[in-house]
Task: inverse folding
C-alpha cells in the first residue's frame, strides 16, 4: 500500500490525474484517495471509464487497489488505455501478488480439507473470492471476521480444517482462529507457505486505530 501511496503522490505532484481502480469504501482505497484528493478519480467498473474527466489527456496515471487480482484490474486498465493511449500505469506485480498468493494457498490445500475458513471482512472482494474458490472445489467454506464467528457445528464433521485470510486481515486473527479450533480438541497444525510477502500494507497514520503486522498469506490446515 505504501508503494501505491508514493506513486499516487509522485504522479499528482507531476500534474497527472490519478485514476484509481478499486472498490469504493475499501480502507486501502480511502487511504490512497486521501494522498491526493484533488487529483485522484476512482473507477470501479469498465463502464465507469467513460465517465472519467481529466484536465490533460496526456497527463494521466492509473493505479490499483493492491488486493485486486490481475483479472479484476486488467479489463478496466485496458479500457483506460483505449481511452487514454498515453496513460501510465503500474505493473502486474504491484497489483495482484497478495491476492494471487492467497488463491494459490487455497488451491494447494483445498483437496485435503473438509472445511475452509477465510478470515476477512464481508466487504473484501479478495476474501470472498477465496470462499468461492473453495466452494467451487466442493469444500464447505465460510468467511469469518474473527474467531468468535466460528460455528462449532462446522467443526463436528471436519477432520481437516484449512485456515487462510484475506489480504488485509492481520495474521493475529488467523492465529486466534487456529487457537479457537485447538480449544475444541487436540489438533496438529501444518503451515503451508506458497510465497513470501516482505512488503507491508499499512493504512495512512491518520486512518490507523492501532498498528498491526502485515498479513503473511499463510494457510494452516489443522488436523
Result:
Amino acid at each position: 500500500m505504501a508503494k501505491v501511496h508514493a506513486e499516487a503522490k509522485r504522479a499528482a505532484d507531476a500534474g497527472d490525474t490519478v485514476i484509481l481502480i478499486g472498490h469504493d469504501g475499501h480502507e486501502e482505497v480511502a487511504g490512497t484517495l486521501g494522498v491526493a484528493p484533488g487529483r485522484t478519480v476512482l473507477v470501479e467498473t469498465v463502464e465507469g471509464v467513460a465517465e472519467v474527466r481529466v484536465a490533460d489527456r496526456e497527463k494521466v496515471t492509473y493505479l490499483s487497489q493492491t488486493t485486486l487480482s490481475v483479472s479484476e484490474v486488467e479489463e478496466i486498465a485496458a479500457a483506460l488505455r483505449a481511452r487514454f493511449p498515453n496513460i501510465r500505469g503500474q505493473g502486474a506485480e504491484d497489483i495482484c501478488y497478495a491476492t494471487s498468493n492467497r488463491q494459490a494457498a487455497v488451491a494447494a490445500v483445498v483437496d485435503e480439507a473438509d472445511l475452509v475458513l477465510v478470515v476477512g471482512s464481508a466487504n473484501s472482494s479478495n476474501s470472498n473470492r477465496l470462499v468461492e474458490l473453495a466452494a467451487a472445489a466442493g469444500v464447505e467454506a465460510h468467511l469469518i471476521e474473527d474467531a468468535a464467528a466460528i460455528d462449532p457445528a462446522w467443526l463436528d464433521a471436519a477432520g481437516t480444517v484449512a485456515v487462510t485470510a484475506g489480504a488485509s486481515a492481520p495474521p493475529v486473527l488467523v492465529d486466534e482462529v487456529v487457537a479457537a479450533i485447538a480449544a475444541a480438541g487436540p489438533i496438529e497444525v501444518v503451515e503451508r507457505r506458497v510465497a513470501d510477502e516482505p512488503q507491508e500494507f499499512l493504512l495512512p497514520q491518520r486512518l490507523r486505530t492501532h498498528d498491526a503486522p502485515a498479513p503473511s498469506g499463510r494457510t494452516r490446515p489443522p488436523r
